[in-house]
Amino acid sequence: MSIQQDYDPATASPERLGIGMRLSVHPHCDAFEEAIVGALADVADAGLGAELVVETDEVSTYVGALSEPAEERLAAFAVALIAAAYRRCGEGHVVAHLLFSRGCPGEVTCNPEKVGLPTPAPIHLEATGIPAVAQWSLYPLLDGSSKGGDHMAHIEAAIESAKARGIAASANHYATKLTGDLGEVVSTAVDAWTQVGAVVPHVVTHLSISVASPSVAAAKEGTTR
Amino acid sequence: MSIQQDYDPATASPERLGIGMRLSVHPHCDAFEEAIVGALADVADAGLGAELVVETDEVSTYVGALSEPAEERLAAFAVALIAAAYRRCGEGHVVAHLLFSRGCPGEVTCNPEKVGLPTPAPIHLEATGIPAVAQWSLYPLLDGSSKGGDHMAHIEAAIESAKARGIAASANHYATKLTGDLGEVVSTAVDAWTQVGAVVPHVVTHLSISVASPSVAAAKEGTTR
Fold first, then answer.
1. CB-based burial label for B154 (10 Å; 0-12, 13-18, 19+)
2. Chain B residue at shortest CA distance from A209
3. Closest-CA residue in chain A for B57?
């Protein structure tokens, strides 16, 4: 039995809708292991793991949301983890890869005919003061019989929203470049993902985020990248 | 004008179909910068950049295929780069994140009604002798009017193929776990991606690969992970 087949707004929960993420954080400093372990501890100490399931395996960390506001909890956790790794890395270069997913949890079949999906409000995160550059991809997973229309139309609308937010979205191969405060970069991707999720029952977004990149620092100093 | 709208088997090329990848390689050793730069040089020296466009920016490296066999060229480049980073890292822990895409290049609109897409043969890569663990996601980007059917059916068929190859696919949240030789792990994901691409004009696959993970080594020694 799939989540979508028995979707009922009265009983739906983030857990039943399969709202969660996977993330990998790569601090590029010598003490990278301590930076990762320490950053996870910092985020737990700050209480950001509340109402989340956090499971780290040999490839990445799964974080699932147990209650509302699910999207904001996930985004706040991701931003705090990246910021903590950056601080523990001596404000050094950190790259993180994030996958946010909703709908069709596990290998179950979804029913794309179901509508009436939840429409969460935009999330609010504090500015971190940490400038970030990201490459962002959005995957609305329609079916042949879906009412969601054209998957590229959803993607184009999301890019226009990012441009309107001043996140300076520009097209790269297979991804859109986002540039801004770490919190705003993550909020932009998460808001687009939830907005598509109000129409398309299964939607995934991927975000590769770089902070304190040596090539960006070199460019600011006027040298070549 | 989109690639799909004017797809013609007689004139189609990997470049016109937008066949390419983005990858980030994270060597987790102290000399991580030298490992990345050195690995890129090793792969170029081995001639694996032939008939590929390779562009590194502050977040990841874009690799586009200019000629056939496009999928095999991309996969061989990715495997060689990860293997070179692993060797330069003292056979240490390396994590790589890969995105393979075909169809709908840039932000153009695709025409999902077009069929007659190419069906490349399975790729062949040498075994590397490097054991790998990966988390793999496949995104068949259908439209509401597509003939490609149910996106989950394509994903389930791909997982069954991976199981049949003995890559020990098991389900994780939002990803399928693949375990095996680095070359076979990448081949499995690439073959599934091209197979879906014969039916669905726009398909993307993501792969997070870990080699020489300290947690796997600990498990082999009988200690806790």
1. buried
2. B59
3. A215
